[in-house]
Amino acid sequence: MLDVTATRSLHSRRFGQDPVIFSAPGRVNLIGEHTDYADGFVMPAAIDFATLAAISPRTDNTIAINSVNFDEQVTYPVDNLPAKASHQWSDYPVGVLSVLREAGVHIPAFSLTLNGDVPIGAGLSSSASIEVASMVAVLSLTSAEIPLPRIAQLCQRAENNFVGASTGIMDQFIACCGAEDHALLLDCRSLEYRLAPIPSHLSLVIANSMVKHSHAGGEYNTRRSEVEEGTALLRSHRPEIKLLRDATPDDLARWGSEMRPDVLKRCRHIVTENIRTVAAADALEAGDLKTLGRLMYEAHASYRDDFEASCPECDILVDLASKEPGVIGARLTGGGFGGCTVNLVENANARDFSAHLREGYLEATGIEADIYLCHASAGVHKITSSEGEAQLAK
Ligand code: GLA
Predict the structure, then answer these.
(1) pLDDT in tens, 6-51
(2) DSSP per residue over 356-391, as a string?
(3) Residue 159 class from Cβ within 10 Å (0-12 exposed, 13-18 middle, 19+ buried)?
(4) Ligand 1 atom 2: the closest Cα is on which residue?
(5) Contact between residue 244 and residue 306 where contact means Cβ atoms under 8 Å apart
(6) Spacing, Cα 38 to ligand 1 middle (Å)
(7) Global pTM exceeds 0.85
């Protein structure tokens, strides 16, 4: 758990003012990978790793942003913020300021302290949690009233246009709208969502393969352009296909042979993943854990074989998990190419499961995995007392 009191006193000592503090969570995605930017469906849950953003106003036309994690501070005149990314942690809060300003929000002078415990580069959306925490903190000093789904869209824009990662809306949306003990099925086209309770006898166990990934540039953006190539081909035959959300397995059967083989595989992953994700939400709501688990394993296989976004280490983690008692389902979660697996495990088995997974993984790869026993948590909120007691401030 993040230390709210320590963050408050660090801020007060450094900036001489008592801050208001906001917390925005990381996330784990139960199913629905690389479907968000195809206007499809995702089913993430917010987790109890978060970024705290402590903010106080200033009177000297300066913006100062301190990162506790990187032990660094950036300072800018309020009217001369960087126009471009500098490929470091400050791109996230600065990107947020840039999109807010574009959206017509007057940016005041402020001091901001960021302190987070979402593992970085692990596929648990540390970046979205920084963006959302920063945006909500800055907005609290202005008169602008922006609904949470719109805040998610603006944070996504900061990530796309300023940071340079062509990500979808999932991470920012769940950081805004997540709910305690619930997964969230999001329609990434309409932004309508429904919350599905995660049964209280199940634990969310996250296993970090310790293989790092990065979204800015690299494989993520390559996959996205492959998907766009396939979508354009389908659209040339059936103009109603705006994005892969609109495509069916029949469309792929008819026109897939005109695609490059890799492009067809990427599209097949997304088209089938959308179907699996909606079915998984129905299964979770109906308490049909067997179906939910089967869909998670199928989603992993599709991510590995068709989307080719897994890595040998994550495949080992899923394989080991599938042989353990009390495991409902397991799969690689997040953007891919490393990061974490998500495991839905009966509470009674969760501790043994974690120990076995750690041992088996060490034996197979020589790597010590970090295993987190997580809990589905609330979206962004204001911390309302110095004891660090959190309450929804929606
Ligand atoms: C990253 C992106 C999301 C989503 C996932 C893959 O987390 O930020 O928008 O595309 O990858 O599902």
Answers:
(1) 999 999 999 999 999 999 999 999 999 999 999 999 999 999 999 9
(2) HHHHHHHHHHS---EEEEE-----SEEE-STT--EE
(3) buried
(4) 167
(5) no
(6) 11
(7) yes
